[in-house]
């Protein structure tokens, strides 16, 4: 293998179990290079926007709606994903 790293699809703190399974399986298969996980900056919980995005990437619609309804800012949603997935 000649790669220095690998890229993945968009993930969030809502998909942490799936990310953990992926990382565990990659390690089991001997993948030793680091992975870079994409984190999308969701600006709002606008249902139309989220449904449109679902055509291109996995979107945790219900979870995002709940977070934004609680008053969580877009910056905090993104930061939470980065923080939790970095662990």
Strand content bin: 5-15%
Average the pLDDT over all residues and give the rounded result.
93
Gap from first CA to last CA: 26 Å
- Shape category: elongated
List low-confidence stretches: none
Into how many domains do the coordinates divide? Answer: 1
Number of separate strands = 2
Category by helix and strand content: alpha+beta
Q: What is the overall number of helices? A: 4
Radius of gyration, in Å, reads 14 Å
Give the fraction of residues assigned to helices.
40-55%
Strand order of the largest sheet: 1-2
Quaternary structure classification: single chain
The sequence of SSEs as H and E is EHEHHH
Largest sheet: 2 strands, parallel
Characterize the structure shown.
The structure is a single chain. This protein has 87 residues and is of the alpha+beta class. The chain has one domain (6-85). 47% of the residues lie in helices and 13% in strands. It contains four helices and two strands, in the order E-H-E-H-H-H. It has helices at 16-28, 47-53, 61-69, 74-85; strands at residues 6-11, 35-39. Strands 1-2 form a two-stranded parallel sheet. The chain is elongated. The relative contact order is 0.21. The mean pLDDT is 93.
Which secondary structure elements does this structure contain, and how are they paired or packed?
Elements: E1 6-11, H1 16-28, E2 35-39, H2 47-53, H3 61-69, H4 74-85
Parallel strand pairs: 1-2
């Amino acid at each position: 293998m000649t790669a220095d790293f690998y890229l993945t699809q968009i993930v969030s703190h809502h998909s942490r179990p799936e990310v953990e399974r992926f990382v565990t399986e990659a390690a089991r298969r001997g993948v030793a290079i680091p992975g870079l996980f994409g984190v999308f900056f969701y600006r709002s919980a606008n249902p139309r926007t989220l449904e449109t995005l679902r055509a291109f990437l996995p979107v945790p619609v219900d979870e995002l709606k709940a977070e934004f309804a609680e008053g969580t800012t877009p910056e905090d949603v993104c930061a939470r994903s980065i923080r939790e997935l970095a662990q």
